[in-house]
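Note to self: keep these together.
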Amino acid sequence: MADDLSSRAVRSSTTERAIGLGYAVLHVCVTVSVVHLRKAVAQVMWMTFLTATFAVLSASAQTSRQGLLSLEDARIFYEVIGSGIPIVVIHGGPGLDHNYLRPALDMFATQNTLVYYDQRGTGRSEATLDSDAISIDTFVDDIDDLRQTLEYDRITLLAHSFGALIGLAYARKYPLNLDGLVLMNPVEPGKRFSGATATRQSAARSDQDAKELEDLMALEGFQARDPATLSQVYRVSFRSMFRDRGLVDELELDISVRTAQNGQEVARLLGEDLDT
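Structure:
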């Protein structure tokens, strides 16, 4: 009986040691696994960071060349970055320049050639401000003159907002020179675009934004076409176009002096052209 109890005690002690050893091994395995998992996660995060950083640096390091296209009644500023399929970017407005699109689009220059330009009379592009020089047709011809200057057989157009009207007009006039047409947030086509857009924007604007806009437009700086004041007017005006209205503060709306001085007249002349 005593021997049996002694034998049971030995087996129990052995079992406890085995279980304890098992827990220890399991603890070590789990600890090692957690360490490896943490290292793996850290490596993935590091590689993700490097990939994102490389993409940003690649975009910023893309070769860039600028030029002025001299025409009879205008000088068109353009900048070409990246390499690959040529994509001509048509900015919105009317009466803006291309700069506000750069933060969103520059990343695509890693696999494409992006051609930015300022529409005549705004940004760094000069033009006579009359109905002969400022029209949808002259804006369309500027793009094809730019295509020929850069020696592209065919181009893709990436057109934003009001620029969509120019892109569509180009497609009608020069279909054989076009590889593709991408419209981003296009305005309503035809004569009604300005009124319909203004009505929709006004309906979406909050009372606070409407009051802020009214106060800005009463400032002397607005009447004098001060670039900083106009930049703020555009920012408040655009706020109602965003689902997340805080995102408007991320827009780079540094209006140039020429854009500030000429933008309103360019918009008026184009509006008259669309109404004829």
